[in-house]
Amino acid sequence: MKERFLVVNLNQVGAVVLSLPVFAALRQAFPKAFIATLVRDAMIPILEGNPHIDAIIGWEKKWPLKRKWRIVKALRALDCEVALNLSHSFERCLLTWLSGAKERIGFQSAEAPFLLTCRIPEPPLRHSAELNLDLVRALGVSVGPEALEGLRIWLTKEDGAFVKALAN
Description:
Strand order of the largest sheet: 3-2-1-4-5-6
């Protein structure tokens, strides 16, 4: 049974939001699993507070090589068995491979599909959230339309207090 997952996430707000059902589907299928994500630093607040994510790791393309290498070592230390790459970029494919995960699932049209162990086709006219869930389905997990209910942003206590203060 798979117990450790890494989701290599995207750089833009909309793409990160559309990745949220992946975390809910993984948590539902593997309730005791460790689920981590690699995401651009600016996207971390979108994912904080999400009960389906155990670790959020920041990454920036502009960082010096030494700092990037520390992140790669941290990814390897997570010892994830499966990495789901929601991106098409060469950099994210490389990071998926560098994570050390034996099973690396991503899209067939990725810029470096040779770094993936499982490549998923992308049918035209399919919603991005559904395409992302296809990567979870590649694990043999049955994912139905209810998985899209995972398309929600979780607020931290600080966020909730800020919203209440605005309302008053």
